[in-house]
């Protein structure tokens, strides 16, 4: 064979293409022999991992840039700069301090999180690793590892980078690895050493290797790797293929293997694990979108106020007598300015004066509410699973309220609705059914050739590993020595169930040793089969095969897979009987697999080897070539039989789906299983009911009719539902038909609206089952519903890696901590132990989150309208002079201190309805659907309520101030006393308003609500009771105390608070009266129904009694 440089293309060698996107790794940093190829030392990164976002030097500028990209922060920065540049009525501190507080809190939070990442990075980068250099093992830090270094890894150690396995302590050159930190799969996976080096077990032997590795550049795909290793022997160089079975990934752990030697090929941030650190796309909740829309409205209101006041100021000053008061005359320089410049400056000054209508602190409060509120999910004991020992996890708190808005739920079947705990039920061989617990009746007749082959096929065609335990007196017992102390492990629960089923039927798989698979047959004889090739399973082929040689020298290809993948490749066998049994088991909800074989001659085997080797040595499109080779090999099969495995429904899965339906959600099941199996599960889980009329949009039907006709037939059927037909419809669609719907033929002029017709059909179905779905199709379905004209909120839930695409696509993604690994849980927004926990997460936590944050957002805008509108009215009474109504301290602390804690606590612990009621009555979820509490009518109501309260506060105080004998000594109040009176009424009103809206009272509520009011009073007494040396003015000195010394002031505060809260009290009284009426009428209806039922029962008893008496009389 020939060897080529990574940078030189040759076309005459086997498997070589114009493939330049590659790297050459020199094992042990050794140069190739002279004359073989040019030695070009490439530059690779070191093994340092960097997951942190900032450094010590760039933290401040980078963090500031990111924070000021937010519109609200940038807006307040502009306002703050305007206050610094021009003469404004309020101090720059009033805008600068809240902004500084928001920016500082966020920076501290993000800085602390990044410091933790730095700390974790350093612990990883400084971890010791063992490297073979000059025939000796030396120890160095992980960050100093280089591409080409040969690493020694011992049992239970993690791999420091991506490695190619050269040799292991096991004789067959294999090692066992767990990839739990990568994809969550705790099962042991087998990896293989390069055949030419697997016998090298010492440092000196490893150091003698003279070879290079040519492989692809780093790719994020964990399960794909293409390369080859070139050995420089005494004669011509030899090339061997390298694949994913030779690649050990960083973060995986060595198990059940004493040690291995491996060479580093990808280091640092080029490892596959690091390349998978990419951030997920940012999801935004409906509440956040509403907040931004409201912010734009309030910004328009702010600009309108500033324009109105600017215009009114110049209208006011048009009269020469009102030009400027004597105590605030303009300077000569100001008079000589152009009127446009003066008007613009005044406009900016009014913008600054009214800018507090935009609640900058709302964003911080919302973030704190989401972050702290997420802990209620993690602390929920009802969402703790004792079997797994796991609690619910929150991977992002940005979508808490979205849990209360879900309209569509897309769920996987296997491992999500079902337990993914496989149990072998039966197998069918040539029409004969074998059930483990009736084995004695089955084997009373002489075994047939196909039966023997079938059992051996299932014992050989798998990737199961045998794990042995030393449990009896410290002596290691093998599986064939009396009582078994071994058990099977595999990445697929189906395979374990099948091998264990064969064990119960008399054929026991023992081990794989020295490339030989050992089986213990019914006669307790050990049979050895040489494992020649493994044609691995993939989701496209939906089958796997092995090529083995028996001890007698016969060659067999054994193949197992889905019925749709096996039946088209079968040329003989009892197909009809087996197909009938497969369909019967599928209807019963069992998972089925078909098994076939093909005897091979030596010549055929040589052709297979050439075909596979040619594909394996390809450096470009290797997967495609292997798929083509597998397709050519797995043909002309003889059908042996089929298996049936049960995957039981998860606990309370049916109850959960029924509750979701009652809550108004539509549930879709997206699965790769066959239609019959999935449909049986849907019936068992109450997704479909017995009276549900099933509509089929499947390949079988589209073969009989055109897709166009089928769609229009189904459309006419569901339209009858709209015309008064009360039939409950359920739709079943398969992957092939979905592809046709989403990508219609361009030749068909009527095909443009297929997608809309399909969506219309789905809208009128209570449940939809999508079977034979590829992972990408699951995401396409979710995207299709998301993009429909209603724009519904979607939720996707699954437990496997094949569900990640739809989890990332949906508005809310939930991962199940299942047996298919943790990849779904890691990529999700939330993770729960079992499907049943979805009920409480949505109906209780989601309901509460949405109610709380909706109140928080509306309340923030409301209290800021109450705060600023009096300032706007005040300008009409001060000649539009930009005089502030409130003191600087009040302006600064209103949103930060006086009114922030009560609403934050409310948004964390409020329960407007008892938790048990929410669980028992899922229909309450419908009341908050479609963002109902943040619609424009409710927003306008809160805004008008704020305007009303502001008018009551301002004009109430204004007319009360008209009394010149307001104080006992006849002294008149000034403008700061007037502003303080309005502000006092304001703080008490908005706090009491929140207290009126609170349904769930605890000691914490009392402490925070009344504590906030006490803090305001104490602060005002201190602020106005002391002459502060750092202030240039003392305008608030003794103002608050003087106001409180007045009886009329106390009376006016009480009256104004009562008048402001009057609409809320009236609304609450009317609401409670309506609720009581509803309860009364409901109870009356129930009483009437009970009375009617009792009457019917008594009449029935009377009829039965009369009938019995007539029978007795007849006798």
From TrEMBL:
<feature type="transmembrane region" description="Helical">
    <location>
        <begin position="347"/>
        <end position="366"/>
    </location>
</feature>
<dbReference type="GO" id="GO:0005886">
    <property type="term" value="C:plasma membrane"/>
</dbReference>
<keyword id="KW-0460">Magnesium</keyword>
<feature type="transmembrane region" description="Helical">
    <location>
        <begin position="973"/>
        <end position="995"/>
    </location>
</feature>
<feature type="binding site">
    <location>
        <position position="495"/>
    </location>
    <ligand>
        <name>ATP</name>
    </ligand>
</feature>
<keyword id="KW-0472">Membrane</keyword>
<dbReference type="InterPro" id="IPR006539">
    <property type="entry name" value="P-type_ATPase_IV"/>
</dbReference>
<feature type="binding site">
    <location>
        <position position="560"/>
    </location>
    <ligand>
        <name>ATP</name>
    </ligand>
</feature>
<comment type="subunit">
    <text>Component of a P4-ATPase flippase complex which consists of a catalytic alpha subunit ATP11A and an accessory beta subunit TMEM30A.</text>
</comment>
<dbReference type="InterPro" id="IPR036412">
    <property type="entry name" value="HAD-like_sf"/>
</dbReference>
<feature type="binding site">
    <location>
        <position position="772"/>
    </location>
    <ligand>
        <name>ATP</name>
    </ligand>
</feature>
<dbReference type="InterPro" id="IPR023298">
    <property type="entry name" value="ATPase_P-typ_TM_dom_sf"/>
</dbReference>
<keyword id="KW-0256">Endoplasmic reticulum</keyword>
<dbReference type="Pfam" id="PF16212">
    <property type="entry name" value="PhoLip_ATPase_C"/>
</dbReference>
<feature type="binding site">
    <location>
        <position position="591"/>
    </location>
    <ligand>
        <name>ATP</name>
    </ligand>
</feature>
<dbReference type="InterPro" id="IPR023299">
    <property type="entry name" value="ATPase_P-typ_cyto_dom_N"/>
</dbReference>
<keyword id="KW-0967">Endosome</keyword>
<dbReference type="InterPro" id="IPR023214">
    <property type="entry name" value="HAD_sf"/>
</dbReference>
<keyword id="KW-0547">Nucleotide-binding</keyword>
<feature type="domain" description="P-type ATPase N-terminal">
    <location>
        <begin position="41"/>
        <end position="95"/>
    </location>
</feature>
<feature type="binding site">
    <location>
        <position position="799"/>
    </location>
    <ligand>
        <name>Mg(2+)</name>
    </ligand>
</feature>
<feature type="transmembrane region" description="Helical">
    <location>
        <begin position="1037"/>
        <end position="1062"/>
    </location>
</feature>
<dbReference type="GO" id="GO:0016887">
    <property type="term" value="F:ATP hydrolysis activity"/>
</dbReference>
<dbReference type="GO" id="GO:0005524">
    <property type="term" value="F:ATP binding"/>
</dbReference>
<feature type="transmembrane region" description="Helical">
    <location>
        <begin position="939"/>
        <end position="961"/>
    </location>
</feature>
<dbReference type="GO" id="GO:0005789">
    <property type="term" value="C:endoplasmic reticulum membrane"/>
</dbReference>
<feature type="binding site">
    <location>
        <position position="803"/>
    </location>
    <ligand>
        <name>Mg(2+)</name>
    </ligand>
</feature>
<feature type="binding site">
    <location>
        <position position="803"/>
    </location>
    <ligand>
        <name>ATP</name>
    </ligand>
</feature>
<dbReference type="GO" id="GO:0010831">
    <property type="term" value="P:positive regulation of myotube differentiation"/>
</dbReference>
<dbReference type="GO" id="GO:0055037">
    <property type="term" value="C:recycling endosome"/>
</dbReference>
<keyword id="KW-0479">Metal-binding</keyword>
<feature type="binding site">
    <location>
        <position position="414"/>
    </location>
    <ligand>
        <name>ATP</name>
    </ligand>
</feature>
<feature type="binding site">
    <location>
        <position position="672"/>
    </location>
    <ligand>
        <name>ATP</name>
    </ligand>
</feature>
<dbReference type="InterPro" id="IPR044492">
    <property type="entry name" value="P_typ_ATPase_HD_dom"/>
</dbReference>
<keyword id="KW-0067">ATP-binding</keyword>
<keyword id="KW-0597">Phosphoprotein</keyword>
<feature type="binding site">
    <location>
        <position position="414"/>
    </location>
    <ligand>
        <name>Mg(2+)</name>
    </ligand>
</feature>
<feature type="active site" description="4-aspartylphosphate intermediate">
    <location>
        <position position="412"/>
    </location>
</feature>
<dbReference type="InterPro" id="IPR018303">
    <property type="entry name" value="ATPase_P-typ_P_site"/>
</dbReference>
<dbReference type="GO" id="GO:0000287">
    <property type="term" value="F:magnesium ion binding"/>
</dbReference>
<feature type="binding site">
    <location>
        <position position="412"/>
    </location>
    <ligand>
        <name>Mg(2+)</name>
    </ligand>
</feature>
<feature type="transmembrane region" description="Helical">
    <location>
        <begin position="293"/>
        <end position="316"/>
    </location>
</feature>
């Amino acid at each position: 064979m020939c060897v080529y440089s990574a940078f030189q293309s040759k076309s005459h060698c086997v498997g070589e293409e114009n493939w330049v996107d590659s790297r050459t790794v020199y094992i042990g940093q050794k140069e190739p022999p002279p004359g073989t190829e040019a030695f070009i030392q490439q530059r690779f990164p070191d093994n340092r991992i960097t997951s942190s976002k900032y450094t010590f030097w760039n933290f401040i500028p980078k963090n500031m840039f990111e924070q000021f990209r937010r519109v609200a922060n940038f807006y307040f920065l502009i306002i703050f700069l305007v206050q610094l540049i021009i003469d404004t009525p309020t101090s720059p501190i009033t805008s600068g301090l809240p902004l500084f507080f928001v920016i500082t809190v966020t920076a501290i939070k993000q800085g602390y999180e990044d410091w933790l990442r730095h700390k974790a990075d350093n612990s990883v980068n400084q971890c010791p690793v063992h490297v073979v250099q000059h025939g000796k093992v030396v120890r160095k830090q992980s960050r100093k590892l280089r591409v080409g270094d040969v690493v020694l890894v011992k049992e239970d150690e993690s791999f420091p980078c991506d490695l190619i396995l050269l040799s292991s302590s096991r004789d067959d050159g294999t090692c066992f690895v767990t990839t739990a930190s990568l994809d969550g799969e705790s099962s042991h996976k087998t990896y293989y050493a390069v055949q030419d080096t697997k016998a090298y077990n010492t440092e000196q032997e490893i150091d003698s290797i003279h070879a290079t590795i040519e492989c692809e550049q780093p790719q994020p795909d964990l399960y794909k790797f293409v390369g080859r290793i070139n050995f420089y022997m005494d004669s011509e160089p030899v090339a061997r293929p390298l694949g994913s079975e030779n690649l050990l990934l960083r973060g995986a752990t060595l198990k059940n293997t004493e040690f291995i030697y491996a060479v580093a090929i990808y280091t640092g941030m080029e490892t596959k694990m690091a390349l998978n650190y990419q951030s997920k796309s940012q999801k935004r909740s409906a509440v956040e979108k509403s907040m931004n829309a409201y912010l734009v409205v309030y910004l328009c209101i702010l600009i309108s106020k500033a324009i109105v006041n600017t215009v009114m100021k110049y209208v006011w000053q048009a009269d020469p007598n009102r030009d400027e008061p004597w105590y605030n005359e303009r300077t000569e320089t100001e008079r000589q300015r152009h009127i446009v410049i003066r008007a613009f400056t005044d406009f900016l000054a009014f913008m600054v004066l009214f800018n507090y209508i935009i609640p900058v602190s709302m964003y911080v409060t919302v973030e704190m509410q989401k972050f702290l509120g997420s802990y209620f999910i993690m602390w929920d004991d009802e969402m703790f699973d004792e079997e797994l020992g796991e609690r619910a996890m929150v991977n992002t708190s940005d979508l808490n309220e979205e849990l209360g808005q879900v309209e569509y739920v897309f769920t996987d079947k296997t491992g999500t609705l079902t337990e993914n705990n496989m149990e072998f039920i039966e197998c069918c061989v040539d029409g004969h059914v074998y059930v483990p617990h009736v084995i004695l009746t089955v084997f009373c007749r002489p075994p047939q050739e196909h039966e023997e082959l079938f059992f051996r096929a299932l014992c050989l065609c798998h990737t199961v590993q045998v794990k042995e335990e030393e449990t009896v007196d410290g002596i290691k017992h093998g599986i064939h020595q009396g009582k078994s102390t071994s058990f099977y492990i595999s990445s697929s629960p189906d395979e374990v169930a099948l091998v264990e089923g064969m064990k119960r039927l008399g054929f026991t798989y023992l081990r794989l040793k020295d490339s030989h698979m050992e089986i213990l047959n019914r006669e307790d004889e050990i049979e050895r089969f040489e494992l020649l090739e493994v044609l691995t399973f993939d989701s496209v082929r939906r089958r796997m095969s092995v090529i083995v040689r028996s001890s007698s020298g016969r060659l067999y290809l054994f193949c197992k897979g889905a019925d749709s993948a096996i039946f088209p490749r079968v040329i003989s066998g009892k197909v009809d009987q087996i197909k009938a049994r497969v369909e019967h088991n599928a209807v019963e909800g069992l998972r089925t697999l078909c098994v076939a074989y093909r005897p091979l001659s030596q010549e055929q085997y040589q052709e297979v080897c050439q075909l596979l080797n040619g594909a394996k040595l390809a450096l470009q499109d290797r997967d495609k070539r292997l798929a083509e080779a597998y397709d050519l090999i797995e043909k002309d099969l003889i059908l042996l039989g089929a298996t049936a495995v049960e995957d039981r429904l998860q606990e309370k899965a049916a109850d959960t789906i029924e509750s979701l339906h009652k809550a108004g959600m539509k549930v879709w099941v997206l699965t790769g299983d066959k239609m019959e199996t999935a449909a049986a599960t849907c019936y068992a889980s109450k997704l479909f009911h017995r009276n549900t009329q099933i509509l089929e949009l499947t390949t079988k039907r589209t073969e009989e009719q055109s897709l166009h006709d089928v769609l229009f037939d189904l459309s006419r059927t569901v339209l009858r539902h709209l015309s008064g037909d009360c039939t409950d419809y359920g739709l079943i669609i398969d992957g092939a038909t979905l592809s046709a719907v989403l990508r219609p033929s361009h030749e068909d002029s009527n095909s443009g609206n297929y997608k809309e017709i399909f969506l219309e059909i789905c809208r009128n179905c209570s449940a939809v089952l999508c079977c034979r779905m590829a992972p990408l199709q699951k995401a396409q379905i979710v995207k299709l519903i998301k993009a429909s004209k209603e724009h519904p909120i979607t939720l996707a839930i699954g437990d496997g890696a094949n569900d990640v695409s739809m989890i990332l696509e949906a508005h809310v993604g939930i991962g199940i901590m299942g047996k298919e690994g943790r990849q779904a849980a890691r990529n999700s927004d939330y993770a729960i132990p079992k499907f049943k926990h979805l009920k409480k997460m949505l109906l209780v936590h989601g309901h509460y989150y949405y109610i709380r944050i909706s109140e928080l957002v509306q309340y923030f805008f409301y209290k800021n309208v109450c705060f600023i509108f009096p300032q706007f009215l005040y300008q009409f009474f001060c000649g539009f002079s930009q005089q502030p109504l409130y003191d600087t301290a009040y302006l600064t602390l209103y949103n930060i201190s006086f009114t922030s804690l009560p609403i934050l606590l409310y948004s964390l612990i409020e329960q407007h309805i008892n938790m048990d009621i929410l669980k028992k009555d899922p229909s309450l979820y419908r009341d908050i659907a479609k963002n109902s509490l943040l619609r424009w009518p409710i927003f306008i109501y809160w805004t008008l309520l704020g305007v009303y309260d502001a008018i009551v506060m301002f004009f109430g105080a204004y007319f009360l101030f008209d009394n010149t004998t307001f104080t006992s000594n006849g002294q008149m109040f000034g403008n700061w006393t007037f502003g303080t009176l309005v502000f006092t009424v304001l703080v008490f009103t908005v706090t009491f308003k929140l207290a009126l809206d609170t349904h769930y009272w605890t000691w914490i509520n009392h402490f925070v609500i009344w504590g906030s009011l006490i803090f305001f009073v104490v602060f005002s007494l201190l602020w106005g009771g002391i002459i502060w040396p750092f202030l240039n003015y003392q305008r608030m000195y003794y103002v608050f105390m003087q106001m409180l010394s007045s009886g009329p002031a106390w009376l006016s505060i009480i009256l104004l608070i009562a008048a402001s809260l009057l609409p809320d009290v009236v609304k609450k009284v009317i609401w409670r009266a309506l609720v009581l009426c509803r309860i009364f009428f409901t109870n009356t209806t129930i009483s009437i129904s009970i009375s009617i039922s009792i009457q019917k029962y008594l009449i029935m008893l009377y009829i039965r009694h009369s009938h019995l008496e007539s029978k007795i009389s007849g006798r």
